[in-house]
Specification:
By secondary structure, the protein is mainly α. It contains four helices and no strands. It has one domain. The longest helix is centred in the middle third of the chain and has 15 residues. It holds the Pfam family FdsD.
Length: 73
C-alpha cells in the first residue's frame, strides 16, 4: 500500500472523529487503528508520521504517539 493511501485512510478516520475534542479524537483514532489495521500497516503509518512532509492531519499525528507499536521479529 502506498504512503498516500495510508495517509488517506488515516485522515478519513480522523474525519470520522472530528466532532470530538482533540485529545479524545486522537485516542479514538489510535484505538481504531490498533483494532482494525494490520501490524504492517501500523508500522508504515508510524514511519510516515515522522516525516514532516507527510500529508497527515494534526489529529493523526497526535494519535501516532498512542498507536500500539507492532512487535519486531
Amino acid at each position: 500500500m502506498t504512503p498516500e493511501k495510508l495517509a488517506y485512510m488515516a485522515n478519513q478516520i480522523a474525519i470520522a472523529f472530528a466532532r470530538l475534542p482533540a485529545e479524545e479524537a486522537e485516542a479514538a483514532i489510535a484505538e481504531h487503528i490498533d483494532q482494525f489495521w494490520d501490524p504492517r500497516m501500523r508500522a508504515r503509518l508510524l514511519v510516515l508520521a515522522e516525516a514532516p512532509d507527510a500529508d497527515l492531519s494534526d489529529r493523526v499525528r497526535g494519535a501516532a504517539a498512542l498507536i500500539r507499536r507492532p512487535a519486531t521479529a
